[in-house]
Amino acid sequence: MYEIDGMAEKYSDGRQLVYLAVYFLAPAVPFAFTGLAVGLLLAARPADANRTYAVNLLGSGVGCLLLLPALPILGAERTVILSAGLTLAAALVLSFSRSSPVRALMNVAALALVAVWLIQLPQTLVLRLSPYKGLYQALLVPEAEHVSSQWNAFSRVDVVESPSIRSLPGLSLAYRGMFPEQVGVAVNGDHLMPITARPDGNEAAWADALPEALAYQLRPGAEALILTPGGGLAAATALANGAARVTVVENNSLLVQVVRDDYGSFAGGLYTDPRVILQPAGPRAFARQARMAETRYSVIHLALTDAHRSVSSGAYSLGENYAYTVEAFADYLELLDDGGIMVVTRWLQTPPSESVRVFSIALEALERTGIDRPSMHLAAYRSFQTGTLLISRSSWSEDRLAAVRSFCERLRYDLTYYPGMRPEEANRYTVLSTPIYYDTYARLTAVLGDAREAVYDQSEFGITPPTDNQPFFFHFFKWRQAPQVLQTLGKSWQPFGGAGYFVLLILLGMALAAAILLILLPAALAGRAKHTASPSPAPHPTFFGRYRLAPLAYFCLLGFGFLLVEIPLIQQFILFVDQPAFSMLIVLFVILLCSGFGSMTAKRWRLEWALGLLVVAAVIYLPLLRIMFRWALGWPLAARLALTFPALAPLSLLMGVPFARGLMLLESRSRWPGPGTLIPWAWAINGCASVVASILAALLALSIGFQGVLWLGAGAYAGAWLVVRLGVLAPDTRYLIKNNLAVL
């Protein structure tokens, strides 16, 4: 409860944990039935388990690829119906293959009725937005109108017209002019960004009162590069401040379409202006392309397009962002000409988080580019709500620093850092209790290299600069925050305090509980049924007996190994193919398809060799991929996608062998009572381990990085290799675990 003027406000809602459990379990229902169907097929014909498993993987891989055309054409709701229709088709095929003609026709009739219902379902199956999404909040305002909604393979883009949309991040409080008319555009229901009216196509008094205007004043007639401009505000600001040419890098074609075509006249022909060059690419890929072409810019603006969030904004902190890593900034800085300036604006929070993390990234990136005194290349200032950092390719001259001071004085921005800044120059206009930003920047610039770790450790939030191995810019959580998070639980609008980390911990607990329930409960029931049927001692070991637990541990380790390798590969390939959803589809397609081929060839493999090669590959694969990324990141997207297949195919092929080969060896064991007895258990345990590992991989990546998660995957495969070496899967085993090795 929270007291406000004697009135109690309850911010806690215990039902949300129930909802979280429902959201977690609801998608599991179709997968449970799919797993049941595949498990039954594996058990029915254990001798052909490798083929059954292979076809399942191949179908899953093709399904990933089908999403690329399905989402833009059908949208999310109808794509779900398409999936259900394909499942019906599978049931129909099975009905004809295993039933009499009369029964098959009856099944066809029943399935036809279900199909008719599915066709009508999209009328009622409407995707509901979370009330915490920016789009949902914008539509609550009177007179707000939802204009359009479009899908492509990796995003949904919505347009909202509303009198409440006013977004000029960092606008000076000294500005007294009119606000421009704006339209909101949201990606995936969030990140509501403005499309700004430019009725005369160029003049905009407000553009001179934004923090990035200083960069264009220092470099008049700039050759500007705008990275991730969203609705185009940063590009409009550049033109209004006199940029001679503006290169706009945007990899979401739907955003470009909305600004250029749907609202072209409203935006004053922004994206058809001859001074504007559109580049359909991600910021990292374009930066590498520009480096290869030796292109240079006088101003680089990494635009602020995401919504303001406090550091307590839950699971938002878990997303990868390769535009804000040390390697990314090093690439951007290489594109600046001799007097070039890079400008980055981020939202302010107290204690400092986003703006300080950008500052630390810049320091590390400058050092990586060979600059000995990076502090001489930085200048920073803040508005009421934003912090801006200028990174100069060359050291700041006295004339330029005078221009910085004059700009901040005119627009009432508070200086937070420049070389030689005096303490009394800080905290003059928007006064804080202490000049915390100046103090933090001063401590960071007073030391070099590894010595900054002490400053990072002293910070209340995590401000260590993200890298491509841990590209989690918004992950500010530290374990020392846990007591405070628990104390404020239910007393704050943000239920998980400073950590989306806690969301993953809760999901991990739910997954473990579900896995234990789904494995141990059936095992206990099966054991009780067997005991009731035969009071005499069982002729075979029980489920938890020494001879059965070890081979089932093998399949558990495979489940962990597969996902602990797969998840970091998906996350790392976001850098290579530009979009998280796109990366998931492409990487899953390659891994599943090639794993299917590996399963088909399982009979030809010696299991110890396959597992040994997997262990080695999982250890060395990420360093090899990073070499490939440095070499090919600047290639066109089509070429990068073509390279993804041969890059992932060898590892993926190996990943398909151990499970299928293990099933074949398990089925051949003479001591198991009947063919296929343990195969359903192996399938179930492998699946449960995979679910737990998928959450665990995301959780661990935040702490130990992708390389560390891959090493853990290698460790899981090494454990499976040990099981094989002990002989518990071999058909002619002498039970090498019999003496003191009953349980691994």
List keywords for this structure.
744 residues, disordered C terminus, 11% strand, eight-stranded mixed sheet, alpha/beta, four-stranded antiparallel sheet, globular
Most strands sheet = 8 strands, mixed
Q: Give the termini separation.
A: 49 Å
| Helix content percent band | 40-55%
> Shape from CA axes?
globular
Average residue pLDDT = 83
Reading side by side through the largest sheet, how are the strands ordered?
9-8-7-10-11-13-12-14
Radius of gyration: 29 Å
Enumerate how many helices there are, as a single number: 22
Classification by helices and strands: alpha/beta
| Content of β-strand | 5-15%
Assembly annotation: single chain
Poorly predicted spans = 1-11, 493-497, 535-547, 670-676, 731-744
Record field, number of beta strands? 14
What is the strand and helix layout of this fold?
Blueprint: E1 2-4, E2 7-9, H1 15-25, H2 28-44, H3 49-98, H4 101-120, H5 134-139, E3 145-151, E4 156-161, E5 182-187, E6 190-196, H6 213-218, E7 223-227, H7 233-240, E8 245-249, H8 253-262, E9 276-279, H9 283-292, E10 297-302, H10 326-333, E11 336-347, H11 354-368, E12 378-382, E13 386-392, H12 398-411, E14 414-417, H13 436-445, H14 453-458, H15 482-488, H16 501-533, H17 546-577, H18 580-600, H19 607-632, H20 637-655, H21 657-667, H22 679-725
Parallel strand pairs: 7-8, 7-10, 8-9, 10-11
Antiparallel strand pairs: 1-2, 3-4, 4-5, 5-6, 11-13, 12-13, 12-14
Helix pairs in contact: 2-3, 2-22, 3-4, 3-18, 3-21, 10-11, 11-13, 16-22, 17-18, 17-21, 17-22, 18-20, 18-21, 19-20, 19-22
